[in-house]
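INFO worker-7 received task bundle
INFO bundle size: 2
INFO processing item 0
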Amino acid sequence: MFNQRQCYLINVETNKQINLPHLTPTVLGRNEDTEIKDTFVSKKQILLYSDIKENKVKLKVVGKALSGCNGLALQSNLVYTIGHHDIIDLRIGNHKFKVIFDPEPESDKTESEVKKRKIMYDIFKKGETNMESAQELNAVGMWEDINNKEMLIYTPENCEGRNKIAGFDIDGTIIKTKSGARFPTNMDDWTWYLGDVKNQLRKVYEEKYKVVFFTNQFGLRNDNTKIKDFKKKIENILKSLNLPVQVFIAIGKKHFRKPRTGMWDCLLNKKNNDISIDINQSFFVGDAAGREKNWAPKRNKDHSCADRLFAMNIGLKFYTPEEYFLKQKPVPFKMPEFDPRIDTSNLMYPDVSYPKQHVVLMVGGPGSGKSNFVKGSLIPKGYIHISRDQLGSWQKCVKEMEDALAQKKNVVIDNTNVDKETRSRFIQVAKKLNVDIRCFVMDVTVTQMRHNNLFRELTDPNHAVISDIIIFSYRKNYQEPELSEGYVDILKIPFIAKFSNKNHEKLYRNFLLD
């Protein structure tokens, strides 16, 4: 079956395999994939991709070295068609890679027959005839799929690394819908957003900035048709601009999505031709800036603050499209309720000691830090830890509590305990056994809970994903604990962040929520 076929290159010397996905441009050159360090070979020496359906590979030399195939020299910027068992020389006579189709094409039964065919016939078909995919190569760009479509990257062939970056969001910054609809109706539903966008982008490029687009596009996720259309839309925008703009597209919801810095980190570490970036001379422009309703006459509030926070996380100067393209003055904006940059190292837990046997009833939503507090501050003091997450039902929690109290142990109930009815189940048992009950409330906002949960999701792949729906449900149903419920005291417990390594702390101190 066609879907079961594959095509790859085999390094003749090392046997290392490089996959050639169907109709997906791949770069071959001096890079980590080939392990080639020969400075005569360009980092982008050959562009190629396979047509698995036709058992063909399209190839174009774009680098400075003289490349070859089967001992014959190849001309630069011509598209060649090659096939199974043909051998590519990145630098003629050196760095050989054999083309493999699996399963083997029926027309190429044995390698000896193939060699004979190559001697007798011209195997190359120069030019772009019968090659729809050659248009992708000749669009002077290459698409890459990162982390199983968590991110897409488009890099024009003549895109060079520079130490100054002019970064831009796309929708609401570079373009808007031609139809006037909030969301585009098709891939051609776009026009320039403000003023003289094209000339201003050309001007900043001529000032030796590398122009880069960074966009969130979660709506493309798992829809190949939408992805294909969006790629074409990007190519059309860049064709109209006639500039070598590199484009980063965050499709997933993890590290690459703004305001998280995954797209920038990829540019910084892998996609700027090893040229360091001067943060102080670089900038970012975006419309998700946290502006409130009527920031301009009859203008709606910004849908988020993600672009501004993206720039803040990186340390870039930030402009709205109106500030950058129209030179308007900055307007007020609203920052998120929770600021992760605030240093909490001076916070301390209150004294939780108590002279009599008692029960501690924890109150806090997912990500409030209650379990870490219990494990760090109460369990070491001999408290019996009771959690619905471990036991499965409140009835089992009550039974476990009764057993522990009968043994004269102190008990901590590590559940969300969001409302009075839920808490009353444990209060009644304590009263029945004549044991004092205390309430420890995690002093954490809903926004910080969301931040904490996303941080755990990004740093611990084994941690259960907690959706915002669950956290918002907690907020909706929350009832503030009162002494009249039967507590001897109520203590507020702050969230104190603790980190296993510096990278985790650096991530936590970034704005993560869009």
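INFO item 0 finished
INFO processing item 1
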Amino acid sequence: MIVGTAGHIDHGKTALLEALTGQAGDHRREERERGITIDLGYRYAALAADAPLTGFVDVPGHERFIHNMLAGAQGIDLVLLVVAADDGVMPQTREHLAIVELLGIAQALVAITKCDRVEPARVQAVQAQVRGLLAPGPYAGAAQFAVSSVSGQGIEALRRALLAAQHALQPRSQGGAFRLAIDRAFSVAGAGIVVTGTALSGQVQVGDSLLLGKAGKPVRVRGLHAQNQVATQAFAGQRVALNISAERLALEHIHRGDWLLAEWLHAPTQRLDIELHLLAGEARALEHFSPVHLHLGTQDVTARVALLEGERLAPGARMFAQLLVNAPVQAVHGDPVVLRDQSAQRTLGGGRVLDPFAPARQRRSPQRLAQLQALAAADSLEQALPALLAQGTGGLDPQRLERQFNRLRNHWRLDAQVQVVATRQGPLLFDTTQWQALKARVLAQLARFHELEPDQLGPDRDRLRRFASLALERPAFISLVDELLGEQAIASSGPWLHLPTHQARLNEADTALWQQVQPLLLAARFDPPWVRDLARATGSEEAEVRLLLRKMARLGQVHQVVRDLFYPEATVRQMAAMLLRMAGDEVQVTVFRDALGIGRKRSIQVLEYFDRIGLTRRLGDQRRIRRDNALAQPGDN
């Protein structure tokens, strides 16, 4: 169990921990000189002879060091709220209480200190004051203990209460990747660099490889301490000290706020969607896009708050918001966050992370807000997934979900209604009904295309994607089309997609013109006339002839070798057959030219077309025949 103190400056937090543990704690010279806790202090003690070690985090109470208090509050299981009997509830008492409530720390005990300095009536008055302070929040009715760190009054009763809380504490899940928010880093002679923090998830053991900081520098765990004892492995919920090593790793490269993570979880982000609660004690509403200090893990960074459900958030109210962070952070679903004002003088509110990979566009759309509502209500990926899929028509990236919820796919319990679609850029998740609806829409839009363009064989993939107007990225759409092709729900002729029963139909004018143009193209064999010559010969407009030949190219009847130069399908296959009959696989331009009986320029234009369709491959000044091309197959010649 990790116990953290909270309370106003000079209310006896450090002395109380010394009385509980018998240890003077971890004090720096400037702290001893000034008589206050400036940075985090740590102690480890067994609350009973047969009890495991309990970690105690002594946090500073001075308002100037609230950022240090926030760094120490991460990973605490129980907060020990300390209130001096002579002072009573003070400003930092209230702010510390607000912070631990925002962080979602489950348990709290109250110590009324310095009871040897005041009359019993004063102690009772302060206890009543504390009960009133706690009444509106999650710690209403928390047990209070009147203690004196000098005389020892009440210390044993408080120790027994802590021991009972430790026995009742549910161990944290060891699932997911290891995460450590670093709160200290120092060098030990003969060992090297050591970093400390509370393990927030997963487990780690000696020899593991982890990634350090936003740059993701690989490091190796050489040794570790868990709860201040030498160990070979450590688990979520423990105070951990890791001796790490890496090439060119220096102490000055490591800072409080850095994360130490399993490799697959490392995903820095600068946009977080959160469920935000503004403290009721705030004097005015929080405006859209207000600058704030964000505290996440042990990190303190500046950010802007983009409100997603309005322009102002009233004191005491809640709203979905997006944090635009000025430096990369690491987060997973459920992480608590605390926001302080731009000058870091007071705590504004906080909440928890819903999506660490928040979208930059359509963040206020009804679909996105519905997703956030599902994320806010869910305790697990499985609970959130149906609503996420229902509102996300473009599919969900499972790797992103792994990082969002800190759970690898092999631990998911997916419902039968979830379909995994393989794409060229990795798998995507769809609701099965939704995926079938997308396929039905593509078929309906393809039928509509045939109605609008009866003289075309069909669109290519990209044109069909634009025509169907689906909210799918190209890789997902290609997979959808491939699935329809595999089911023979659609057919392909070259690059053109069409329904199996569709046949392109020319209108009467095009049919009549084609009957004039086709004989001219066939008669010219390897040197067909240009569009302008065909227009002159048929008494037509150039644009009319050009449009017809492009239609015929989509139908596979002609090939456009260069602009305004079209070869009939039969002629192209004849030229390909001649090329294949030449000795060897290397193409000789002069031999090919002489075989066709045309000029060098025209023969090169034909060969370059063969390059484009994959019959030949250009390698420097040489060309080689590709025998796997459709035109090279025996039945096609």
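INFO item 1 finished
INFO post-check item 1: Residues 27-39, 61-65 have pLDDT under 50 and may be disordered.
INFO post-check item 1: DSSP finds 18 helices and 31 strands in the chain.
INFO worker-7 idle
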